[in-house]
Design a protein that fits this description.
The chain contains four helices and 36 strands. By secondary structure, it is mainly beta. It has a single domain (2-689), classed as Maltoporin, Chain A (Beta Barrel). The strands form six sheets. It has a 22-stranded antiparallel β-barrel. Strand 17 (376-398) and strand 18 form a beta hairpin. The longest helix has 18 residues, at 2-19.
Length: 695
């Protein structure tokens, strides 16, 4: 342990030689629930990253915004009907769709539902300027999340009026993405808006998509300069998104572009329409205090043909958050206090019918003429509400030593109202309330003005989602009374800082997380791909993370290495014990880097994505192979009158390596593998006003 501490603190000591002649860094993060703070003052791992123009070329998925962030594992399923899987320190790797185990926000407004599920197809990717990632236990901050927090921050409107932009991206085995928008400022109102259209087939068969997304954001600065108001609206219309499904090893070897035959026959896919509206109010209280309030709401409809059923959901959801913070003097010391509460609700009308496509015989469940929607199997209303008050305090024990403590109390109530009740089908209505108190404590040592080291112990609380609670292995409706929430205790040591003379920032962390009742997915024979969940007794995660960002003249580098040693400690299914086995879904070693060389208006950039083999099931009986993927891109910016033309040509997976982008953990029938594209040529043309910064 002593050697680990020395390893973490040594860079901070080396930075001291530059601190006397350099100002403090201006970087601030807002995903702290205390207002903007320097990362050097925070007792947990946090990364601020801006999307790279090579990686975020298409802006089709949230994974493009998170490349080269340490501790973050990205899995693009190449499936437009299922969002990319994003996990932090292994939490969220079990997700069958959307993002699990991680709280996701946009401009501080929660996108994660009260049950912990995040449909990330509603994120405004076009307007994203930077991403703030809190890695590790975050329950004392946001609740119902074991892995951390992702806050996508939008580009600030420029001071000029009507700065329009447009771009088109297309290429091999990828849909065409077209976007246009404008941003500017009119007196005290800043505005930005965009409209994006996605059309075409992806890398795999049965992966066609048609989608339209729009976003508008207004920033109002009243005459009272201490107040700020933001209004945001988003619209998502996915008229078609096919699901190619996962493949067996034999199918992967024969043709990685193929789709699962069952997914094709059953017309697996989705149609989604969603609208979101939020209002954010911020007001300064004195010199260092602040009040922040958020109110938001959303409407979503989903038509979702699956291999085992057709699911239709009408959802309304919303919530509100309030936070108050201030700083005060206690004698010669400074204390910071923050307190607030989150309230969320979610109402789903769920219908589940037999998928009768390809039915071999006429039956009660699949009568003559039935196709996608046969006999009704579930008709229920699902209600989820959550309440989470929190308080956090920070005290300067010495000029270079900060201590902080926080606690949050969460209560999440699930209720099902069964509307399919007959003489032979009893009423499965019921409710459950899952709750926890989550404390956290941390220390930060400012080893130098531009470097710090920290230690923290924290806890987290993660409930099953509504779908996870509702998918009972016996096939009945209602709530699974046996599935328990997952609880985690984590220890972490880390350091971060800046060496101005070299233009280098670093972020390093070592962690250990012990979880009980970890939520684990599994399939059952003849289940046709339906996911069920159970609790593992105990798990242990140990890992290390190192992130480096460097700018030296025309050269820029961002690199992240992640080591993940995740094991089951106590987990038995029937008579089989998985104790000592690796937790599937996350590689042990992962390295992601981007490098850019600028010469005048031209930029040559490269990316490297390296990962070791990844287990696909609890028994560690099979693995997805490791990968080494290299990408290159050349871009330029040419001014034609008042218009800036920015072409870019990119070659991804330069070596044409066969790789697996994602795995379906514990899938039945060996359908584990979701292949990634081979060598891919992409071309982008972007237009904008000459005064606009490059997007």
């Amino acid at each position: 342990m002593k050697s680990s501490i020395l390893l973490l603190v040594l860079p901070a000591l080396l930075a001291a030689q530059d601190s006397a002649r350099t100002a403090l860094p201006t970087v601030r993060v807002t995903a702290t629930r205390e207002g903007p703070r320097s990362p050097l003052e925070l007792p947990y791992a946090v990364t601020l990253s801006r999307p790279d123009s090579l990686i975020a070329l298409k802006r089709l998925g949230v994974d493009e915004l998170l490349f080269a962030v340490p501790g973050v594992s990205l899995a693009n399923r190449q499936n437009p009907a299922q969002d990319p899987r994003v996990s932090i320190r292994g939490f969220g790797a079990r997700s069958a769709f959307g993002v699990r185990g991680v709280r996701v926000l946009q401009d501080g407004v929660p996108l994660t539902l009260p049950d912990g599920q995040t449909p990330v197809d509603a994120i405004d990717l076009e307007g994203a300027d930077r991403v703030e990632v809190v890695r590790g236990s975050a329950s004392s901050l946001y609740g119902n999340a074991a892995g951390g927090v992702i806050d996508v921050r939008s580009l600030a409107p420029p001071p000029v009026n009507a700065a329009p932009f447009a771009r088109v991206v297309g290429g091999d085995a990828t849909p065409t993405v077209s976007a246009l928008g404008a941003a500017g400022t009119l007196e005290r109102i800043g505005y930005s808006g965009s409209l994006t259209r996605v059309v075409g087939r992806g890398y795999r068969d049965h992966s066609d998509q048609r989608a339209t997304r729009g976003a508008v954001r207004l920033l109002l600065t009243p005459a009272r300069a201490s107040m700020r108001i933001a209004v945001a609206a988003r619209m998502t219309d996915v008229s078609n998104a096919e699901s190619p499904g996962a493949l067996t090893q034999a199918q992967l070897d024969a043709n990685p572009q193929a789709a699962d035959p069952l997914s094709v026959r059953k017309h697996a896919g989705k149609i989604v329409r969603q609208s979101d509206l939020s209002l954010t109010l911020g007001r300064a209280l004195g010199d260092e205090g602040a009040l922040d309030a958020v109110v938001y709401g959303s409407m979503r409809t989903l038509a979702n043909p699956l291999t085992f059923a057709t699911v239709d959901v009408d959802r309304s959801s919303g919530g509100a958050s309030l936070r108050v913070s201030d700083a005060l003097r206690l004698g010669a010391r400074t204390a910071r206090l923050a307190a607030g509460a989150d309230v969320q609700w979610q109402h789903d009308d769920r219908l589940e019918r037999e998928n009768c496509i390809d039915a071999t015989t006429t039956s009660v469940t699949c009568p003559t003429g039935a196709t996608l929607r046969g006999a009704l199997r579930k008709d229920q209303r699902e209600l989820v509400t959550s309440v989470g008050p929190f308080v956090r305090a920070e005290l300067a024990l010495a000029p270079a030593l900060l201590a902080s403590a926080g606690v949050r109390a969460d209560a999440v109530r699930f209720e099902v109202k069964d509307r399919l009740v007959t003489a032979t089908n009893p009423d499965d209505s019921g409710d459950r309330t899952l709750h926890a108190v989550s404390p956290a404590f941390g220390l930060v040592w400012r080893a130098a003005p531009l470097a710090s080291a920290y230690a923290t112990v924290s806890t987290s609380f993660e409930t099953p989602t509504t779908t996870e609670l509702g998918n009972k292995p016996d096939g009945s409706a209602g709530i699974n009374p046996e599935l328990q929430p997952q609880r985690t205790v984590a220890l972490e040591l880390g350091t971060r800082g800046l060496v101005p003379a070299l233009g280098v920032r670093w972020d390093a962390a070592l962690f250990e997380a012990r979880a009980r009742d970890e939520l684990v997915p599994f399939d059952i024979p003849n289940g046709n791909g339906r996911r069920y969940f159970r609790n593992a007794g105990r798990t242990l995660r140990r890992g290390g993370e190192l992130g480096v960002q460097a700018d030296a003249g025309p050269v820029s580098l961002q690199s992240a290495y992640t080591y993940s040693r995740f094991r089951y400690v106590d987990y038995t299914v029937g008579t089989t014990s998985f104790a000592g086995r690796r937790i599937p879904g996350v590689p042990v070693h992962a390295l992601a880097s981007t490098l850019a060389l600028r010469q005048g208006t031209a930029t040559l950039s490269a990316s490297v994505d390296v990962a070791s083999a990844m287990d696909v099931d609890d028994a560690n009986s099979a693995q997805a192979p490791g990968r080494t993927l290299v990408g290159l891109a050349l871009s330029n910016s040419v001014q034609v009158g008042s218009v800036r033309v920015a072409p870019l040509v990119a070659l991804q997976n330069l070596g044409g390596v066969r790789s697996v982008g994602s795995v379906s953990v514990n899938a039945t029938g060996g359908k584990y593998f979701e292949p990634a594209p081979g060598r891919t040529l992409l071309v982008r043309i972007a237009l904008g006003r000459a005064v606009e910064t490059e997007r």
